[in-house]
């Protein structure tokens, strides 16, 4: 068990329990985090799970795949550390991870 923190665009912070094997999108939607919809169910095809990984964590989360990049780069708020939350699986190494949410989701 551990914690992952989602920070809304306005700075509102939400800590959720880390569930190993669940994606960040699944953790966000199951905990009612505003702004994460996960409309495609985790198929990397809707872009409604956009998160921006804190700089300190990018080496641990890894970088996005080509398919993930194609989707997330459609967002006008795409940042170098942008990820699709559905493509980041929670694991013990991510205990303490902080991700920010963009102002608008696709
Ligand atoms: S849930 Fe659709 S792209 Fe992540």
UniProtKB/TrEMBL annotation:
SUPFAM superfamilies: 2Fe-2S ferredoxin-like
Protein name in UniProt: 2Fe-2S iron-sulfur cluster-binding protein
Keywords (A to Z) from UniProt: 2Fe-2S, Iron, Iron-sulfur, Metal-binding
PANTHER family per UniProt: FERREDOXIN-2, MITOCHONDRIAL (PTHR23426:SF65), FERREDOXIN/ADRENODOXIN (PTHR23426)
Cofactor(s) for this UniProt protein: [2Fe-2S] cluster
Stored Pfam families: Fer2 (PF00111)
Protein family: Belongs to the adrenodoxin/putidaredoxin family.
Source superkingdom: Bacteria
Keyword field contains Iron: yes
Keyword Acetylation among UniProt keywords: no
2Fe-2S ferredoxin-type domain mapped to chain residues: 2-105
Matches recorded under PROSITE patterns: 2FE2S_FER_2 (PS51085)
